[in-house]
Design brief:
Two copies of one chain form a homodimer. The first copy, chain A, is mainly α. Chain A has twelve helices and no strands. Chains A and B meet through helix 2, helix 8, helix 9, helix 10 and helix 11 of A and helix 2, helix 8, helix 9, helix 10 and helix 11 of B.
């Protein structure tokens, strides 16, 4: 955290030059795309800098390390998280369709929203850095947030964890592994099939 | 494929020295463990050779490249595949419990059986090499093999693909991301919850 390089980077933060915020955003956007396409291991600071059109040393000045840059990228839009978390709210008899729709919406409808999620997923499965991120996401944000709301359900946290894992499995099949049978289906067909499965997890 | 190194490796195949099969097996075992723990990207020929107690050049002689070694490791025990594929056979009214149990058995009961599967899963999600492997596995072995048996079901292939993806999602949550709520549950509790969800995919 302290400025040991002698370049005065830390103090410069208080008096940023014009254009710094733009460069920072360009780097973040490039990193998001790279982590999403190449995974954590396959992404380098050099590649990201090249994509963003800046010098690699500037990326290091902004973020300090590949790991820290990754953590910044992983700050998924809170409204996306809210969409997924809130979908567990509401009448229990329609929870399956609601949750399936919310997850499908995040990864299918809006590519800008789903890219950081895919990046986290790839990274989570390929290395320890991302595992902790995804574990924290599922356990703290999804399970705890929703477990409290479904408090009168037995094993609420476990059911939410299973539902999330199963829906993430479909993301893996459709967007990452690209199983043909899943890729070619439209979202509504998937929701119609998956909704009742998720429903059965909660109200069989 | 041809021997361009001038070491006579190709011709040596016809007349193997004693002990070669053992070394080859040691390398395969070491590779399986490494790919499983470090993923495809994080694994090197050098690390595998070190684990197996052989020279890296011997690993290259046996397998030619990291990619080819990976392909050899990925040849999952056919009986394991058979367990998963056959679980879709039988009365439709108990398909959910049967399939959930078969998948849980593969990844929970026997670590020797589940390690190559985990390796494939990690590799599939972190890079293109493994994606093709897992795509081929799900599409050809699971979906086609079982789709034929469930021919009288509408969307049989799609339902099998969704069921497999959802169960693989639970493997990811339990064995790779290690979500605490999932890790701490015993297999029978998981089967009791997941079985009806898979069942609903086929007979809602």
């Amino acid at each position: 955290m302290s400025d040991t390089s002698g370049t005065g980077v830390t103090t410069r933060r208080q008096g940023r030059r014009p254009g710094t915020n733009t460069s920072r955003q360009l780097v973040l956007d490039a990193a998001r795309t790279r982590f999403s396409s190449d995974g954590y291991s396959g992404t380098t600071i050099r590649k990201i800098a090249g994509d963003a059109g800046v010098d690699p040393s500037l990326v290091m000045q902004f973020f300090g390390s590949k790991e820290k840059l990754f953590a910044s990228v992983m700050s998924i839009d809170p409204s996306v998280l809210e969409t997924m978390t809130q979908s567990f709210d509401g009448p229990l008899e329609s929870i399956g369709e609601r949750v399936a729709r919310a997850f499908v919406k995040v990864w299918d409808t809006d590519r800008t929203e789903s890219e950081p999620f895919l990046a986290m997923l790839r990274a989570a499965i390929s290395n320890e850095h991302g595992e902790a991120q995804l574990r924290e996401f599922i356990q703290a944000r999804l399970i705890h947030a929703t477990g409290a709301r479904l408090g009168n359900q037995p094993d609420a946290a476990l059911r939410v964890g299973l539902a999330s894992s199963m829906l993430i499995g479909i993301v893996v099949g459709r967007r990452i592994v690209k199983v043909p049978a899943l890729v070619q289906e439209d979202p509504e067909t998937l929701i119609a099939l998956v909704g009742p499965a998720i429903q059965a997890l909660f109200t069989r």
